Here is the input.
Amino acid sequence: MGQKRSTFLFSALCFGMAFLYIPMLLLIIYSFNYSKIVPVWGGWSLRWYKVLFESEEVWSALTLSLKIAVMNATFATLLGTLAGLALVRFGRFKGRTLFSGMITAPLVMPEVITGLSLLLLFITMAELIGWPGERGITTITIAHITFSMAYVAVIIQSRLAGMAQDLEEAAMDLGSKPIRVLVDITLPLLAPGMVAGWLLAFTLSLDDLVIASFVTGPGANTLPILIYSRIRLGLRPDINALATIIIVVVTIGVIIAGYLMLRQQKQRERDMQMAAQEVVKLDA
Amino acid sequence: MNDNATAAVDRSERSSMRSLTAVLMQRIQSGWKTLVVGIPNVWLLVFFLAPFFIVLKISLAESIIASPPFSPLVEWSEEGALILQVIFDNFIFLWEDDLYFNTYVNSIKIAIISTVLCLIVGYPIAYGIVRSSSTTKNILLLMIILPFWTSFLLRVYAWMGLLADQGTINSFLIWIGLIEKPIRMLYTEFAVYVGIVYSYVPFMILPLYANMEKLDMSLHEAAADLGARPMTTFLTVTLPMTAPGILAGSLLVFIPAAGEFVIPDLLGGGNVLMIGRVLYNEFNSNHDWPVAAAVAIVLLLILVIPMMLYQHIQSKQAES
Here is the structure.
């Protein structure tokens, strides 16, 4: 009986992983296809990588996307950390319900609504105060910060909630000013969460098509906008090559990040054990 | 006496100095607190809340040929009186127009069926991960999260290659001789379901996993020891205990799926009506802003209950 269940679960896992990974594997394999028609095999070749690297359009879209992603991740991490701190450490304050509602709403808001409403805001603002004069990199960055900071705030929130307040309270009792407590104790403890938040905000920005295509202006094509405009009309071998590069880079990044986090966790456990041993020794 | 007086003045000065510092400190402290709450708050008020009122305002306007292409809500009449012009025509139009009505119904139908499919696919996977050894568990979780970090657009594109008439699946089926002519899969509703399940199943698996991990497995053993059959144990013990995870995961799939644009556009083509796509086209191709704004408001009204429900679960989880 138990055997049957574990066989079932094992095959469910295999099926699930195959479902998730086979499409991506095929995408990668076909990027090395010589043929111009994607599904027809014409022998191994790096032809489409050459086409991709020589395309100025792709390079400028990539540069624009990276610029936006870095700006977005930095500001979203700052704002999201402040928001997370406020939600977990300040208890009840005026307007908390609205505030926490506005923090979590972007997480589940359909992208078409966020995109449309931000575009209409930018147009209204341009009319009222003359800013933003032209839509493009700035408006996309602002739009991305608005939804990315919600993700950062959630990460910070869960990290803070899991973190004992003892250290902060001890420092306060010893006479530290609140601002010193924040800089010396809370922020260093939050650093891993902030790094994770930054990376997530960076990825979300690089990945966004819908909101960016609403709030962009003439000539400002991010990488997803460029990819979308090409694949709308069908399969393109150069996009397979681009996809392969993105998948490989992301996979390496995620594996390194996962490894580092695991190592850090083990280190922390070891430190705790050592500390506990010291305490035992002192007691004796 | 003189000495005494000086000392008294000195003392009162010092104490007032001290109280001044205390007040100042308090000010600074509440000042930085205000700043910590204030900065993100102002940002969200301007860039998140205000836009909705603008959308609402425009949805109540009339489409005109001008820049911007809608009539003003508030106008000064020639006599200097303020006129509030509210037009519900756009909403009445959406209600009466079969195309829009059917598109809403179809979007919700597709979102519900996709959510159920995600649950069927995701539940055993989440359960399988929970029952794995701790090293395998970490690797499996990483494998579930990994696609989430790669481009959403490219994952949808991968299915275009699989489902196309000359695509991998059709070529394979013809090659093994199962079919003679390619089956039409791309640009059908079927393709949209595959795309949504593929893209959103991690959102189902992760909350389910988080929920299952906290479960007390001894209850299963107790049920089994008492002679319950596996199916009975599952229905009476496991399923009710994982209900919070099922609800969270379902909302995380249903809400974005109902407003999805990319998947119906790339995999469904023109054959599948979904509201996200209609909204996008209404705005970008037809330039009918008031109708587009009304479409957005109605979509928001449909999704507001699921969204608040999700928020409620989230905040309850944050507290515990």
Notes: The domain at 61-236 of chain A is CATH 1.10.3720.10 (MetI-like fold). The two ends of chain A are 52 Å apart (CA to CA). The longest helix of chain A spans residues 237-283. Chain A has a mean pLDDT of 87.
